[in-house]
Amino acid sequence: MADDVRKTLPKLIEELNEHRQLDGKRFRHKKSGDAYILLFSAFDEHSNEKQAVYGFASFPRVKFVCPMPHFLDAFEPDIS
What are phi and psi of 76, to 5 degrees? Predict the structure, then answer.
């Protein structure tokens, strides 16, 4: 049986607050230049890994999910 990786509620809240100021902000994909919005952070149900939930700036109903560290590496704040 796999180790229990669940985090306590205070730890989850602490991790959510870590990048809260980025929620709702526009980002540009570093390679494509496409504009996206970081909608909010979430956690993977099985691993409790923090995830970035984001969507196209022009059509945010199309959502994507990736690990937060990957999002922060692949996107930069849109200053336009």
Answer: -130, 150
Dist CA 80 CA 69 (whole Å):
23
Ramachandran angles phi, psi of 20, nearest 5°: -55, -35
Distance CA 18, CA 20 (A): 6
The dihedral over CA atoms of 61, 66, 69, 70, expressed in degrees to the nearest 10, equals: -100
| Tokens at 42, concatenated | 């979430």
Taking only Cα atoms into account, the Rg of the chain, rounded to an integer number of angstroms, comes to 14
Distance separating alpha carbons of residues 5 and 13, to the nearest angstrom? 16
pLDDT of residue 2: 58
SS3 59: coil
Among residues 32, 31, 37, 38, which one has the least CA distance to residue 52?
38
Q: Report residues of the chain scoring pLDDT below 70.
A: 1-4
